Amino acid sequence: MHYPEPISKLIDSFMKLPGIGPKTAGRLAFFVLDMQEDTVLDFAKALVDAKRNLSFCSVCGHITDVDPCQICQDKQRDGSMICVVQDPKDVIAMEKMRDYNGLYHVLHGAISPMDGIGPEDINVPSLLTRLQDEKVEELILATNPTIEGEATAMYISRLVKPSGIVTTRIAHGLPVGGDLEYADEVTLSKALEGRREL
């Protein structure tokens, strides 16, 4: 079936989102047509604002609208600990449990030779610079419990070991093959409590 061009473009745009197939994209497009014009304009503005006004923190790599981000600026946080995660979504998951008061470092990925992603392709060099400049006593490796996440954690722990900084890995209270962003607060809290030195 051929739709008028504006709705075809809208359906195609929705299909660019992860997990959205043609049927869902069609339903969303027709839902948008039924919305009030003010609501549609607010929605479009929110999309554009998020894209234009968000960037990555120059210190930790977390997503932010101010640089450095609010976590890095917070003097109440424990600067002796840095929790290393793969994605900004993981910082948000860790913050939800409210048990961790240290700083973060976002790698923006994991080492994956199969996909051609090496240590230089993720945010490892800036982590090493931070470890030289800041008074860090413990590095908590909270990469996902996948093959890539484990490889990344082992690589970082080997790099950091000679510096004398204690390197720990969150415990596997998380399911192997899972992502931090989908874990509940209790599971994350248990995983953080059970971290071990590598």
TrEMBL record:
Gene3D superfamilies listed in its UniProt record: 3.30.60.80, 3.40.1360.10, 6.10.250.240, RecR Domain 1
Ranges of residues in domain Toprim: 80-175
Role description: May play a role in DNA repair. It seems to be involved in an RecBC-independent recombinational process of DNA repair. It may act with RecF and RecO.
Pfam families: RecR_C, RecR_HhH, RecR_ZnF, Toprim_4
Entry annotated with the keyword Glycoprotein: no
C4-type Zn finger ranges: 57-72
CDD domains xref list: TOPRIM_recR (cd01025)
Name of the protein in question: Recombination protein RecR
InterPro entries (UniProt xref): DNA_Rcmb_RecR, Rcmb_RecR, Rcmb_RecR_Znf, TOPRIM_dom, TOPRIM_RecR
Domain of life: Bacteria
Keywords of this entry: DNA damage, DNA recombination, DNA repair, Metal-binding, Zinc, Zinc-finger
Family per record: Belongs to the RecR family.
Organism taxonomic ancestry: Bacteria, Bacillati, Bacillota, Bacilli, Bacillales
